[in-house]
Amino acid sequence: MLYAVEYTVFGIIMGANLGLGLFFAFKKSGSLTTNEMFLGSRTLKMLPLALSMLASIMSSTGIVGFTGHFYTYGLHMAWCVLTTILLFPVTVHVVVPVMYRLKVTSIFERRHMAPEAAV
């Protein structure tokens, strides 16, 4: 029975993603430029930029690796969670505004910029 529930949830999530994609594909008429399609015409607000940076850093391999490491080595991995919670305000008030002013969409894009780029 558990397999049926898992497949149902998976199907709902995939259907929702497909529905959103089709909706936005047909909503806007005319051709889109690459800048409009991939970067939203460089008009990202603060929250989408923060979520994009989060998605750039997180990966399925990292999440699975973290849980495996936690299972193998125990509670000391809780320090990672604690430091993440403690550094969250720094990220919100320092890193995200800097990235927003630089008009980048991911951490990796900033890494390839010149070191003397104005902040």
TrEMBL record:
Example GO molecular function: transmembrane transporter activity
Transmembrane segments: 6-26, 47-70, 76-100
UniProt superkingdom: Eukaryota
InterPro entries xref list: Na/Glc_symporter_sf, Na/solute_symporter, Sodium:Solute_Symporter_SSF
Membrane topology designation: Multi-pass membrane protein
One Gene Ontology cellular component annotation held by this UniProt entry: plasma membrane
Record keywords, A-Z: Cell membrane, Ion transport, Membrane, Sodium, Sodium transport, Transmembrane, Transmembrane helix, Transport
Pfam families, sorted: SSF
Intracellular or extracellular location(s): Cell membrane
Family, per entry: Belongs to the sodium:solute symporter (SSF) (TC 2.A.21) family.
Protein name according to UniProt: Sodium-dependent multivitamin transporter, putative
